[in-house]
Amino acid sequence: MKIFFVTDLHGSEICWKKFLNAGPFYGADVVILGGDVTGKAMVPIVQRANGTWEASLQDHRDILESEDAIVEFEKRVMNRGYYPIRVSDQEYVAMQEDEDLVDKRFKEVMLDGTERWIAMAEEKLAGTGIRVVACPANDDMFEIDDLLTHAQVVETGDEDHPIQLGDYTMVSMGWTNPTPWHTFREAEEPELAKRIERALSAASDPERTILNFHAPPYGSKLDNAPALNPDLTYVSGGQALRPVGSTSVMGSIKEFQPFLSLHGHIHESKGAARIGKTLALNPGSSYEEGILQAAIVNIDEKKRKVKNYQLVNG
Amino acid sequence: MAAVGEAPTLFLRKATGLVKGWSRFDAFLYSFMSVNFVTLGLFFALSVLAFVPDGQVLPALLISGVFVTFLVVTYAGLISVMPRAGGDYVWQSRVLGGGIAFVLAVTGWWFILWYWAPIYGNILNVEVFQPLAAVFKLDGVSTFLASNNGLFFVCVVTVLLAGYLVSLGMEGYARVQKVCFYIGMIALGVVLLVMLFGSRSGFQSAFNQEAANLFGAKGDVYNETIKVAHTNNGGAIVPSLGFSPFFGPTFLLVPFLCFWILWPNWGATLYGEVRGASDFRRVMGGMMWGLWVTVAVAVVFILLASKFFGWEFFNGANLNYWAAVYGFGDQTIPVWSYAPLLASFYFHSQLITALIILAFGAWFIGWAGTLFLSSTRVIFAAAFDRILPEKVADVSERRHVPVWALILMLVPALIVSAFYAYTSTFKTWILDATLVIAVTFFGTAIAAMILPWRKKRIYENSPIARYKVAGIPLITVAGFLTAAFLGFNLWHWFTNDLYAINDPDSLLFMGSMYLLALVIYVVAKVVRKQQGIDLAAIHQEIPVE
User: Fold this and answer.
1) How does pLDDT run across B12-66, given as a tens digit for each residue?
2) Residue B2, pLDDT score
3) Is the minimum CB–CB distance between B454 and chain A shorter than 8 Å?
4) How far is B185 from A297, CA to CA, in rounded Å?
5) Overall pTM > 0.80
6) Tell me, what DSSP letter sits at residue A272?
């Protein structure tokens, strides 16, 4: 069985399209998006009083003079993982002054975006025999869970819903230890440990269990992130890296010893680590650049072990 | 509320990775300590000016600064296009291919740093250990430090120190570095003030007195130094300080200055998300300030050295040191004429001299950690790409120290240090250390030049896609000028005897590194293929539609 695993696409349309094409491209049997499906930013395209449309991306201001120009701009925005929204001058000002309006709009665009992605997956992969799994994680609002659960081709899982991949059980958990951003699915380590215990109750044989835990194990070198000051600026110009993974995840891997453990969350900490008998992988993420970082894992089903793996930049 | 006429700004939600940016000062500091004026600048670049007797250092410095600026723009551009990518290896592998990238990256960021280890060690010896031994009149220690065994001992200390600083991790080392910056700047400020307000006659007298006191030298050692230098150089030492000739022989100084000034991009990186053109400018600004503040400090130092020491004496004393090291002449005092040591003589106090030397040691400590830090990153990246065995990326469980990567640095570095200490030829190849990294930078400059075409989608999706010069992408222009500058230096290093690295042994030494890298890559490719892993697949782009 060949697994193609990616994580942290954060709304990047170009990465999602590559993800859907990865199965045939690499000959994978199953493609898995480990977590963090949705984007982090909305880019307003504002209609000014004189009728022109104006927007700004990557500090560049654009005056969009035609529908084609607007559509092209929207495409650029979506490829970086952001959501374009068309608003009037008044709406834009109102959103700047009212956080609730922003939250409401975020919810709309994230749900629309996820629905569109699910539709693309169904169009692309239905009937191909390639399985596609997408799980929510800490940066995803809870409302997308329903959409994923009710999708036809796209499968999803969490602590209570393991996924059977042939003879293997994949248990998933999108929750992470606390971050400085207080995102949707965060819990203190004791709470996280309980969730892990619940998830692992579905798995009995470590040699047939795959973990898909979004948070990487603490101190595994898959969890090095730039250290931040309390005001969220970098310590030492971004040079100071610090392990920020989960001790509960590390503890569960050490204790349960699954043969494979897949992680994400820390985009800059691409790598592989051996924790006892477990191969732990974090392919990292460069979603904004449209580069699909992934782990290809070839499993020898007879020997019940990883035959080989490779981290790629597709 | 948005003011009329303001560009619309995006809306962010609470999400991981949305950092607020970095301190410009921190970015400057890292770059400034890499283009280290005291260790690299004083030790080698500014001490060999007499090797080009007709050259002028000020224009050479400005020319070098301008061209290294293009290197800064090139690297800032690449960081902006592919942030979090980890430097030359990843950029080159995505644009030029995995094989070329591996060979250029491991030679430039790993193998040649084995040779940098004794160079670092020698700098520690001549800037800290030997002056302290001299100040305290520890004759036995001075003799030992000047011997091959002494040099090897200091190299071992340096390698262990650099290894320890890596084991601290970058966060711990960054704190050390910041303290070192402040101590080092205060020490430099004191010495520059002495040079500003002190008189040359006062220095001349102090030098003669301390040369007699510390080294037993007799008579007017100051003028004797100049006289010996004339003999060692077979005529003139250097022209009076100025700007003529601006070109011609002055250009020959540039390949020497590269030993010091080529590194403002060392370790530059960018994390975080939802980034824009302002971050390109911020990254560039950090490196640019590091470069140009260093150039400014150097210009001030040179002007004051000319005033205080006397330009002929300063260059003559340096020349005499190299004459003694390389065996083509004599020197009048048995240690290198390290400017802070000489300036401290003005106080006629052993204690103050020792304090100044120790404080200047902060420039070394704040810089020594860079020796192996970048190498471990390259080793890790190559292991994750399955070119090197997985084991080399292991970290210890308790302290998260990259044990195997460190071993792969430390052991060869000690072996090369032994060659450096106990053979006469190894010491003369100092510029090999710069050349090999310059080749790596050259590869990156080529990658930057062709990036807009080779990786069109990634480039067009980046914040710098709109920066153009006469319709040509800025990164292409900057990459071209950087490649031209590096090409100029490489040409001189390879063809001109002046730089002492175009002899067959030196070329064999460097060539063996490239061969070793190539062999590792070919073996990895074959072995991985047998394991069912295609290394070529690492950077194959998946079709979008």
Assistant:
1) 888 877 776 667 787 788 889 999 999 999 998 999 999 999 999 999 999 999 9
2) 44
3) no
4) 52
5) yes
6) E
Cis peptide before B245 (omega within 30 of 0): yes
So what's the pLDDT on residue B23? 72
Structure-block tokens of residue B30 = 């890292």
| DSSP structure string for B42-82 | IHTGGG-GGGSTT--HHHHHHHHHHHHHHHHHHHHHHHHHS
pLDDT at B133 exceeding the cut of 60 = yes
B6 CB near a chain A CB, below 8 Å?
no
pLDDT, residue B170, reads: 74
B277/A59 Cβ within 8 A: yes
Mutate to test the interface with A, among B9, B23, B80, B84 (most CBs of A within 10 A): B84
The beta-carbon neighbor of B26 closest among A14, A225, A234 is A234
d(CA B204, CA B183): 28
For the record, the structure tokens of A310 come out as 């490779």
Angle at CA A242, nearest 5°, toward A261 and B380? 60
From A192, A174, A242, select the one nearest A8 (Cα to Cα).
Answer: A174
Cβ-Cβ contacts under 8 Å, B544 against chain A: 14, 17-18, 21
CA B293/CA B306 separation, integer angstroms:
20
Written as six digits, the tokens of B327 are 């065996």
Sign, CA torsion A262/A266/A267/A269: negative
Low-confidence ranges of chain A (pLDDT < 50): none
B269 pLDDT band, cuts 50/70/90, is low
DSSP assignment, residue B235?
S
Helix ranges (H only) for B270-393 are 277-305, 311-326, 339-344, 350-368, 370-384
Residue pLDDT, tens place only, A12-49? 999 999 999 999 999 999 999 999 999 999 999 999 88
Determine the Cα–Cα distance for residues A277 and A254; give it in Å rounded to an integer.
9
